[in-house]
Amino acid sequence: MNGNKTRHLKPEMQNKKVRLSRADHTFNVVVNVFMVIILIAIVLPLWSTITLSFRPIDFAGSNLDGMFLPPWDWSTAAYESLLGNNGFILAFFNSFKILVGGVFCALFLTIPMAYVLSVQSLPGRKIINMIVIIPYVFNVGMIPAYLLVKDIGLLNHLPAVFLPGAISTYNCIIMRQFFVGIPGELKESARIDGCSEMQVLFRIVLPLSKAIVMTIGLYYGVSFWNDFFNAMLYLNNSYLNPLPILLRNILIGAGVNENLEVSAFANAPINAIKAASVFMSAIPMVIAYPFIQKYFTKGTLLGSVKG
Amino acid sequence: MKEQQLAKAVENKRRRSRLSREIGRHRSIYLLALLPMIYYIIFKYVPIWNAQIAFKDFRAVQGVVGSPWIGFANFKEFFDSFFFWSLIRNTVMYSVGKLLISLPLSIILAIAIYECTRPILRKVVQTLAYLPHFLSWVIMYGILLTLLAPGDGVFNDIVKLFGGTPIDFLSNTKAFPWVVLFSDAWKEMGWSAIIFIAALMGIDVSLFEAAMVEGASSWQRVRYITLPSILPVIVTVLILKLGTILDAGFNQIFMLYSPQVYAVADIIDTWVYRQGLLEFKFGLATAVGLFKGVFGMFLVLFANWISKKATDSALF
Amino acid sequence: MKKSLRFAAVLLLAALIVAPAFAAGGAETSRQAAGTPEDPVTIELWFGAAITEAGMIPDDWVGYDIIRNELGIDLKLTMLPSSESDQDQKIQAAGAGNVLPDIFMVRRPVLVNLVNQGLVAQVDDCFEKMPNRTALIYDADAIGNATIDGHVYGFASPGAIVRNEGLLVRKDWLDNLGLDIPTTTDELMEVLRAFTFNDPDGNGKNDTYGYGAFIETDANLKGYPGSRLWPIMGAFGVEGLWCFDAPNAGLNIYKPEFFDFMVFLKNMCDEGVIDPNWLSYKKDDFRAAWKQGRFGVMYEQNAAYASQANYAPFDSIFPDGEWVIIDAITGPEGHASIGAFDMNYRIYAVSQRAADAGKLDKICELLEWMSSDEGYYLLGWGQEGINYVFDENGVPVAGDLGDAAFTGADGQVYTQLRNMVFYNSDVELSSRYPTYICEVSGKEMSALRALREMQGMKWTNAIGSSTLPTPSADVQRYYDQSLAEFLSGAKALTQENWDAFIEQFNAVGGAAWNEEGVAALEASGLIRE
After folding, report:
1. Structural domain boundaries, residue A42
2. DSSP assigned state of B44
3. Which structural domain range is residue B63 located in?
4. Are A65 and A167 contained in the same domain?
5. Do the interacting molecules here have an ipTM over 0.90?
6. Are A177 and B232 in contact (CB under 8 A)?
7. Could you give the residue ranges of the DSSP H alpha helices within C426-510?
8. Are residues B39 and B94 located together in one domain of the fold?
């Protein structure tokens, strides 16, 4: 794997470990200590949330006690009340459609836009730049956007959830910055070799930008998967509702169950259901991130320049 | 005279032909831009056109164009708010505070992951660091309450153990801003670090080899190679964040605040939410959006100009 | 060639994206349907689900066919979002786009705005078209709740039953400490101190408090610090946001007793007899806290306290624990009240578009059918024999129908529309709040019994509060923030500071709000002599 070759790219350094200077040594200690602190800071809330999601309904202690509850006392009732919901499968598939359609559209539109912005010699680049940045800064809110979605007949269609956000200017400009970072000589030499701009994009720029394309794709994916607001606003057909709406209905429903005397879904504490739903929202990320990490290897650029 | 004019005309013509040649050379790029531009016009500029309701008494039946103009009345309602300056101050305090705390922390985290010499630690942190991003603020509130509650929070239990008086972090005007800033850093640090990790992967490692030969220490390596290499990305993120400086994190504040801390917690977005939600005041919400945009636009242009002068890397 | 092909492909994709823009125009049909099973009238209904966590009614629900065959209506159901603010946003957005559904549930403040925009149809003439339903559900109060400027703009039906909250005290703690049920503010204070400092649960740890609460406010009935402190506010005669009694009619905050209440509450905070987390709790934290035995006096809703799922955790942790519902505490000047109550209504409004399309009669037909025996039981409990059976008293019960029963995981979804037909009859209440035996302690509990007990206490009538004006965000913030600062000690609670607060409150817009409210009270004849 490419990763192993480049990951530990400092063989000289490893050979010369003995010659690590004092400053280098302190550096390593500082880095490692920082990493451990961060690890604790991350694991604490995660653990607290995990244990909370398995909290049995008759649990007596505080949240803190709950973190030390042994696993054999855990209850899966919260997950059962989420997964056992009648609409869960349907909502999951709706969300999946939104995710796939959304990420495809978003990358299909964002990559060309980012590439266009990265071509420094393009006449009119400044104008295009302004066109892109103005809507980013002027976030005009719910109603103007709603009127648009209504006017183009998207109301009550799944694409209404992802099309308004199919280019996030933030993501687009970040991607452009990475494209700009690719050495100009590479692109120039390709052009001299007679490559068209399309070919430059597909043969030179994209292969060198796997990490950022994946990352931006992930950002989009996560935002579409978890979009609640657009779905709530634009979808009237309740059979189209995606997962975040279902989760919210379960959460809020369980929260107001004071009026609901007998609920088939009241076997888990409301806070456990909230915690369990967190992990639902992280599903695409947890699945995709390990794959994407494979592209997070040092010196990807170097290899290609030499190769 | 004539010769001069002639020369000018020739020059113009040459320039124009150079321009048209340049445009011609890039025509496939314009073609690439076509679809995204159409997208921008429909999905980003039509809403901006609809945003004229900020200057109108919006009547749903008459529609955007048919509603009567009312000038700046919506803006005035916002500016005339008794708490206007308090809202601005709080909003700027939180967004600047987050830039100063969350952003550096996420850069440091990315560099630490990059530089870490223990593979297992690195792998574990890199795989878990983004996860707190998915904890909603509802869940975060529960965690904060566990840690910080005045009655039985972990923090205050420790304080009491040492004989101190418990601090009501979540309902105390002195402590609350710090809770907001650090809980945001805590939750988002790993998520925002991903972009910097991606940037770090692009560094030409031969530079490090050269530095080794020169005998540079690790600190120097970070200072003179790593940081400058990802500086363009940092600057980009910074400028983009400045563009939305008047968005201070509605969801977080809305979940954490309570009347005790309104004085230091109420931000523009929470005010608009409370003021406009029930009242069909879409003109007001849109007007505030435009106001924030003007402010953000100014900052973006300014930051871009500074960055062009100082680091030679800029958005446009 | 290759290039032009590529160009064509790009254009095609562009066209795909733009296409819906042109398709939009042709979608609407103006043809009037006959309203027969073969040519049904389409009626879009946005409803508030009874059990949001159970999910949407399945699309093969038998009700769709019945409604089509019997009424000639093709019913299109949309479940509104579960939280009120989401509902408000969705409905207002649809209003802004002039695409409101034919009939939809809406809160009164939103309804008022929609009416001002001319988006909602008048339904004054509809009630005589549905005599059965009107007799059951739409009494004068209900019609008044949907009346704006002299016209009726919706169908208001009773929501949650009123006076369903009460003041609860841990009886077992009182017994452990040899105390009596408190009846005056002084006695209450004694009990709170004892609960805080005398280890009422005998666990040897100093981990209990007297009073438990959280901030639960709204803009027209529950002013800061909210309904959870009503029993104490009631002892000072300042429960509820508005006072309906002449000559003090207006905001309660203007009464001198409000200051006395603040002093009392501040004292509770300073002595530490109120759970110090009360300012940070949200509803769920508060509910988790009483189940963990943190405090011994609270104000809670009947089902949240006594229904099986809610009481079970408390029962398993404290099998010997016992809450009793007590009557209002009497204050120094003889005031006593559990709290202020207003009727809770759910309003279903008809859009002007639907009326223009001539659908109003069909909508009335649908509503009247809902209140027929067939509609009532179908929407309330499902299908007899599948989702419910009648017991010997004629009350629908789950019997041994298992998951398909109206209380089961699969059957529950079929009762999502029940709030459109329920009117809090005895049959409904005994079906909704069955008596049960606690699993651990073996106690017999019933949320209905708790409800009846709570309703029998001293309450203050504030019916009509929901029709009073709401303050602007600034006034609201100034009100809440200042009171909170007095309680936290950021501002010293002295008469001088209080007067200064009232003065500034008036200047910010409080005086105008009060005048507007008094005028509204007078206009609707709500002021009591």
Report:
1. 16-76
2. I
3. 1-71
4. no
5. no
6. yes
7. 426-432, 447-455, 473-488, 495-505
8. no
Same domain, C175 and C259: yes
Q: Which helix (H) or strand (E) holds B272?
A: helix B268-276
Closest partner residue to B135 (CB to CB) among A49, A63, A135 is A49
Cβ of residue C179 closer than 8 Å to a chain A Cβ: no
Whether C349 contacts C119, CB under 8 Å: no
B76 within a domain of the structure (yes/no): no
B63 plus B105 within the same structural domain: no
Give the mutation candidate from A25, A38, A293 for the B interface (greatest B CB count, under 10 A).
Answer: A38
Please report the sign of the dihedral spanned by the C-alpha atoms of residue C271, residue C273, residue C274, residue C275: positive
Domain count, chain B: 2
In contact, A169 and A136? CB cutoff 8 Å: yes
Q: Which of B47, B71, B95 is the last residue of a domain?
A: B71
Of B131, B228, B232, residue with least CA distance to B186: B131
Residue numbers in C near B31 (CB within 8 A): 6-7, 10
Q: Give, in order, the Cα–Cα distances in Å from C11 to each of C2, C8, C439.
A: 14, 5, 69
How many domains does one find in chain A? 2
Chain A contacts in chain C segment 245-274 (CB below 8 A): none
Verify that A94 and A70 share a domain, yes or no. no
Residue B316 lies in a domain: no
B274 → closest Cβ in C18, C96, C476 = C476
Please write the tens of the pLDDT for every residue from C125-179: 999 999 999 999 998 888 988 998 889 999 999 887 889 999 999 999 999 999 9
Which residues 173-202 in chain A show a CB within 8 A of chain B?
A: 173-174, 177-178, 180-181, 196-198, 201
pLDDT tens sequence across C311-353: 888 998 899 999 999 999 999 999 999 999 998 899 999 999 9
Contact A232 C81 (CB under 8 A): yes
Interatomic CA distance for residues A190 and C305, integer angstroms: 74
* B264 min Cα distance to partner chain A (Å): 24
In this structure, the answer to whether residues A153 and A301 fall within a common structural domain is: yes
Q: For position A15, what pLDDT does the model report? A: 45
pLDDT at A141: 83
Domain boundary among A76, A110, A128: A76
Cα–Cα distance measured from residue A300 to residue A6, given in angstroms and rounded to the nearest whole number: 8
Q: What is the pLDDT of residues C251-298, one digit of tens each?
A: 999 999 999 999 999 999 999 999 999 998 888 889 888 988 999 999
Residues C308 and C238 in one domain: yes
The domain that contains B167 carries what CATH number?
1.10.3720.10
With contact defined as 3+ CB pairs under 8 Å, the chains touching B are A, C
| Same domain (yes/no): C181, C269 | yes
Average pLDDT over residues B37-59: 93
Q: Say what the pTM is.
A: 0.88
Average pLDDT along chain B: 88
Q: How many CA atoms lie within 13 A of C118 on its CB side?
A: 7
